[in-house]
Design a protein that fits this description.
By secondary structure, the protein is mainly α. The chain has a domain at about 25-110: Orthogonal Bundle (10k-s Protein, Hypothetical Protein A, Chain A), CATH 1.10.890. It has helices at about 1-20, 45, 50-70, 80-90, 100-105; strands spanning about 30, 35. The protein has a two-stranded antiparallel ribbon. A hairpin with a 2-residue loop joins strand 1 (about 30) and strand 2. Helix 4 (about 80-90) packs across helix 5. The longest helix has 20 residues, at about 1-20. It is globular and about 35 Å long.
Length: about 120
Amino acid sequence: MKLASVAIALCLAAFAAPLAAQEHTPSDAQVAPKKWDVERVRCSDLLHASDDDRASAVMFYYGYLAAKTNIRVIDVSKIEGNIDKVMKQCEASPTMTVPAAFRYALKRPQEKYDRPQEGSSAPSK
């Protein structure tokens, strides 16, 4: 009976550890209830959002950053692939800001000279 209790405790610990690691601390980008500083949102914020919220946020950033860089024509056939690149960048660097992840992930291959440091808000040169 004692062995069974130990086995159950080990199983519970094995499942609890990943769940605890997935806990998300409040974002410093949220400056007030329902108000966010869009330049400070981190990839971890995006990764921990619900599927619907993440989809809305990604499309917001797609348009927001296109407008900031004066892009007037968007090839809609590339949106899904570009978003996949951004999400992979976010998974690799969860402390990176979302705008920096977009900039880094969507650079042309010859421009990807250096991977940004964890926690940076912009790609390093």
